[in-house]
Write a structure and sequence with these properties.
The complex is a heterotrimer of chains A (358), B (248) and C (158). Chain A is mainly α. Chain A is globular and about 65 Å long. Chain A has one domain (89-354). Helix content of chain A is 70%, strand content 0%. With 248 residues, chain B is mainly alpha-helical. Chain B is built from nine helices and no strands. In chain B, helix 4 (89-119) packs parallel to helix 5 (138-145) and helix 8 runs antiparallel to helix 9 (237-247). Chain C folds into two domains: 2-33; 55-153, Alpha-Beta Plaits (2-Layer Sandwich). Helices cover 24% and strands 22% of the residues of chain C. Chain C has three helices and seven strands; from the N terminus they run αββαββαβββ. Chain C has helices at 2-29, 73-77, 116-120; strands at residues 55-58, 65-66, 83-91, 97-107, 126-129, 143-145, 152-153. The longest helix of chain C has 28 residues, at 2-29. Chain C is elongated, with a radius of gyration of 26 Å. The termini of chain C are far apart. The relative contact order of chain C is 0.19. Classes of the chains: A mainly alpha (358), B mainly alpha (248), C alpha+beta (158). Chain A binds chain C through residues 54, 56-62, 65, 316-317, 319-321, 336, 340, and chain C through 9-10, 17, 20-21, 23-25, 27-28, 31, 33-36, 38. Chain C: It comes from Flavihumibacter stibioxidans. Chain C: It holds the Pfam family Fer4_7. Chain C: Keywords: 4Fe-4S, Cell membrane, Iron, Iron-sulfur, Membrane, Metal-binding, NAD, Quinone, Repeat, Translocase, Ubiquinone.
Chain lengths: 358, 248, 158
């Protein structure tokens, strides 16, 4: 049966047999870098196409359908176009920071990839504070956005960056609280242990209604954190042209664009790992036959299936809901999501102490 | 000089270089960004020392909180994009003096701490266990005179955390997987035993609560008698802004 | 009661959001309802909606007769002077002069397909056609004469 675990193990053995430990580490790092970049490129192409197709079907349209069969090469053509374009740097901008900002955003997205378990025993860095690492490092990306907005020397950019900053800083709280509620249930921050604790059922089902509330709050908060509609105040096309990346063009714009989709992928994979059991197959109670069939599907397929389900959910939000005003946005966070998630955390703690979950 | 040392020295050079740039640049926003890089470098140093929890907290508190706050206040000041005038000579002289003094002070500390532990290459279990949990104060006093307390608290669940003490990274601690779990830190934080931190923890929480209530009181508008002049939407804004600053 | 209001707010919000998601999700799972037309490919079996408006035409019957009396109601109704009606005087066998249509000039390049002229016409002489492939190489070709050469007004239309 196909498994990524066997692949990595045999590679490790082969390298250990031929090289000394330092070089094994270096070669493995290089392989990981290559794989991460390849994953980014593929994800960028696939997710942008998926977004356009989903958007089209929700608006009773067809979407891209000219380049290649069903338009599947549309995003590749767009990428080619963006590579060809000139990367303009405006005259009045702070040139160093202007050119640095897209790379900051991109590097943060790459760092976030490290602790995510893609399949059974297939993880770049099984760090013991996995969840905390993700929420800590993701807070750096707001700096990239602020930097881009400020250095463009453009009112729209600055306004977009300020909005984005306020939004990310506020929604981090409720996202963090809903993550903590699962950490309370699991008793560990290590992502692999969180997955392992869902062997007999996903937390979404095991945690009763509080877990479902936490899941909903998590999804809302990460939608806001990735600056996507209905929380796309930062780029609000109709009022700020393009928000913090108004002045960017060519490949530098493409980096922002790509980072947005990578961030969606990462928050969805964190959500899938915490609430939907990561790569764990779906198991139902004592149905031995059913569970065996589910085990036969490779764990990587389970993981990517769940992640893409969540991504679809977030795209569904985007193409359904109208954009929030800035005061509505802050009201939603501070008057609704935060109190509810605090109360919910108390409930979950009580549940974990009394052992009421399955 | 192995790979680990190379990584350490490059991180250290990164921290010092960006720190130097932060104080010498004439553009205030760039100064904030260099400070940010310096703080990220310190987090990287914590990662190198394998104290991942401290590293993550460093990023959450400093990068996600403090620097964002600094950047916001820069955005709200006037003429933040202009070059600042060069500081006066007198100020420069004092700054250099202060820097030299700080350098000498830390040199003194390192001189005191280094030879007793690292050069002798003590195994990690000889290190003081009860006093080494606070990563900030462990390096100087803990390693010099703390070894007498080492035996009496050896059953403490937090005893495995000797790697939180800076400058004590030996080859054993680098490879072994005996690092403190986050739950150990949490238990230590709320334990009421001799080496627990429940009192400082609660005092700090009360301080933060007081700060938050103070912010709300300052930002809250008392319902004025005269009918509202501005739009009703603007009244709610300041409260949320300050709350956000405090909590983050 | 504050708490009750709060909870009902949350409940109503969630419910209305779910209603919206049900609509778009319904469209997503029913691709048969897609209204996009694959234009150059489906040119032979174009499926235009009933109320699609392409250009103004004048109706002629098999005897090459139209129903336009030259009353210029359409010209007056047009918001951007698309229509210009040139009239002449027909002399009836009894020697009575009668106003009649000479040329119905229609500037397609100015037309916004607003349908006001068709609504204004008292005799139903003009209507909106569904032809939309109007591109030509010369702008002058867009100025059209709607009454066919040699056509005359139908008997009995006043």
């Amino acid at each position: 049966m196909f498994s990524l675990e066997g692949l990595t193990n045999s590679l490790q053995q082969w390298l250990n047999a031929h090289l000394n430990p330092t070089w094994v580490l270096v070669v493995e790092s290089l392989i990981v870098i290559l794989l991460a970049i390849a994953l980014f490129a593929v994800l960028g192409l696939v997710l942008v196409l998926m977004e356009r197709k989903v958007a089209a079907h929700m608006q009773i349209r067809l979407g891209p359908n000219r380049v290649g069969p069903q338009g599947i090469f549309q995003t590749s053509a767009d990428t080619l176009k963006l590579i060809m374009k000139e990367g303009l740097t405006p005259d009045g901008s702070d040139k160093f920071l202007f050119n640095l900002a897209p790379f900051i955003v991109m590097i943060v997205a790459m760092l976030l990839l490290a602790p995510i378990p893609f399949a059974r025993n297939f993880q770049i860095w099984d760090i013991n504070i996995g969840v905390l690492f993700v929420s800590a490092v993701s807070s750096i990306s707001v700096i990239g956005v602020l930097m881009a907005g400020w250095s463009s020397n453009n009112k729209y950019s600055l306004l977009g960056a300020m909005r984005s900053g306020a939004q990310i800083v506020s929604y981090e709280l409720s996202a963090g609280l809903s993550i903590i509620s699962i950490v309370v249930l699991t008793g560990s921050l290590r992502l692999s242990e969180i997955v392992a604790s869902q062997q007999d059922g996903w937390w979404l089902f095991k945690g009763h209604i509080p877990a479902i509330i936490a899941f909903v709050i998590f999804i809302i908060a990460v939608t806001a954190e990735t600056n996507r509609a209905p929380f796309d105040m930062a780029e609000a096309e109709s009022e700020l042209t393009a928000g913090f990346h108004t002045e960017y063009s060519g490949m530098k714009f493409a980096l922002f664009f790509l980072a947005e989709y990578i961030n969606i992928f990462i928050v969805c994979s964190v959500g899938a790992t915490l609430f939907l059991g990561g790569w764990m197959p779906l198991h139902i109670g004592n149905w031995e036959g059913f569970n065996h069939i589910m085990d036969y599907i490779p764990s990587s397929i389970w993981f990517f299936g769940k992640v893409f389900f969540l991504i679809f959910l977030i795209m569904w939000f985007r193409w359904t809901f109208p954009r929030l005003r800035i005061d509505q946005l802050l009201n939603l966070e501070w008057k609704y999501l935060l109190p509810i998630s605090m109360l919910n955390l108390l409930l979950i703690t009580l549940m974990a102490i009394m052992g009421w979950h399955f | 000089m192995n790979a680990s040392a190379i990584i350490f020295y490059s991180i250290a050079a990164f921290i010092l270089g960006t720190g130097l740039l932060a104080v010498t640049t004439r553009k205030i926003f760039r100064s904030a960004i260099w400070l940010l890089f310096s703080l990220i470098g310190i987090a990287a140093l914590y990662f190198w020392m394998n104290v991942t929890f401290i590293a993550a907290v460093q990023i959450v508190v400093y990068v996600g909180g403090i620097v964002v706050l600094i950047i916001f206040s820069i955005f709200l000041t006037q003429r933040s994009g202009k070059k600042m005038p060069a500081p006066a000579l007198k100020r420069n002289a004092f700054a250099i003096l202060a820097a030299l003094f700080g350098f000498a002070f830390s040199w003194n500390l390192i001189q005191g701490a280094l030879p007793s532990d690292v050069s002798r290459g003590l195994p990690s279990d000889v290190f003081p266990k009860g006093t080494s949990d606070g990563s900030l104060k462990g390096s100087s006093d803990g390693s010099l005179k703390g070894s007498s307390t080492g035996s009496q608290v050896s059953d403490d669940p937090f005893g495995k955390t000797s790697e939180t003490v800076p400058f004590m990274k030996t080859s054993e601690t680098m490879t072994s997987e005996t690092f403190a779990d986050v739950s150990d830190i949490g238990e230590q934080m709320l334990s009421v035993t001799d080496h627990g931190y429940v009192l400082p923890f609660e005092v700090v929480s009360i301080l933060l609560l007081a700060a938050m209530i103070g912010c709300i009181v300052i930002a809250m508008k008392t319902p004025v008698e005269k009918k509202p002049e501005g739009s009703p939407l603007t009244i709610k804004e300041p409260v949320t802004e300050t709350q956000k600053e405090v909590v983050s | 009661m504050f708490i009750k209001e709060y909870i009902s707010d949350v409940y109503k919000a969630v419910k209305s959001l779910l209603t919206g998601m049900k609509t778009t999700g319904g469209y997503f799972i029913r691709p048969g309802e897609i209204i996009t037309q694959q234009y150059p490919e489906n040119r032979d079996q174009l499926n235009l909606p009933e109320r699609f408006r392409g250009e103004v035409v004048m109706l002629h019957d098999e005897n090459n007769e139209h129903a336009c009396t030259g009353c210029t109601a359409c010209e007056l109704a047009c918001p951007n002077a698309t229509i210009k009606i040139i009239t002449k005087f027909d002399v009836s066998p009894e020697g009575k002069k009668k106003k009649a249509l000479d040329t119905f000039v229609y500037h397609l390049e100015l037309c916004t397909m607003c349908n006001l002229c068709v609504e204004a016409c008292p005799t139903g002489a003009i209507t909106m056609a569904q032809n939309f492939e109007h591109s030509v190489f010369d702008r002058s070709k867009l100025t059209k004469k709607l009454n066919q050469p040699g056509s005359k007004i139908r008997e009995g239309v006043e």
